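Service request form, structural biology core

Requester: graduate student, group of Dr. S.
Request type: structure prediction, single chain
Budget code: on file
Notes: please return the result as structure tokens.

Sequence provided:
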Amino acid sequence: MTRLNSPLKILHVILSSEFAGSERYCADLANLQSTQGHEVHVAGRARSPTLLALNDKVQAHALTLPLLYTWPIRQIIKRYQIDVVHGHLSHACKALAGIRHTAVRIGTLHVGYKAHQHGHLDALVCVNPLQQMQLSNFHGLSAVIPNWLPSPDPFNMPSSTSWREKLNLKPDTIVIGSVGRLNYSKGMDVLIKAYQQVAPINSVLVIAGEGPHRAKLEKLCAGDTRIHLLGHQADVRSVLSSINLFVSASREETFGLAIIEAMQQGLPVIASATEGPSQLLSSHPIPLLPPGEVEPLAQALKAWLQRHIQTKPQQINYDLRDFLPTLALQRMDGLYLDALAVNQASTRSRRSDATCPLQ
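Core staff response, request fulfilled:
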């Protein structure tokens, strides 16, 4: 790994319009890197909530030309002499295809590797080991850098009222919760069905998040007043501080920031054995269940409920050293510098070929 001798000029690009796990990852990474002395920029859509989550040290660039993002990204790279441009999610990574022979192009695999989105990049950040094992057709560098414990409050919001108070719950009400986008891959329908099978009357299920499956989930709840779809919540802490059990029922999950946030709170966790959790959480006291299956989750909920009723609940002291931000930043710097070294060697080779006389 190349050593860091001076601060880097880094540009993060994210072109989504919402603020969920991937967007929070981008904002948190930019903020952390700026506190390490790097010159950090973030380019995103105008009025993007990601740009509002940046600290004062990070320079935000609002992009206002739909479908023509590559040109303004090039201009930012040229104006600020950017060393590394780091794309997040599909649209940003595809936009970097038109950026060549200038800044090193990095992408984080927030979902999975797709050649048409990531194949042109110089290096990839894999958030779990399985992703790296599946990169046989990728010719750039890669490094496994798991998600880290995120900064607690990206918008500097005042502490929210507990959801137990907002929902007017009795002190002995058992609250099961989940956080994530309301789409098929997150498996909220599986969680609702499992909950309805086994949960007692003195319990509620709260789900924080927004997405295209909201109407389907509302129909699935079928008037069950114990289930509450809270919508998008910028203050995730207020949700986690109000629940007794966190459940991630995802059908697909590279890792999931919400899981380690719940672990940071000391909450008991039940998760699907998707690629991220199965690789990174196997050493923790967390049941890992078959993805997309209602019955195993219902039985796991039933077992937890029985234990919860019989014994006084206590916080779990997880070993979270592998998820410290400082460790992630060191690994990220190492990948950036290794990619820069390869890029510089390639540049020297091109220049040598250009000046070499024809035989």
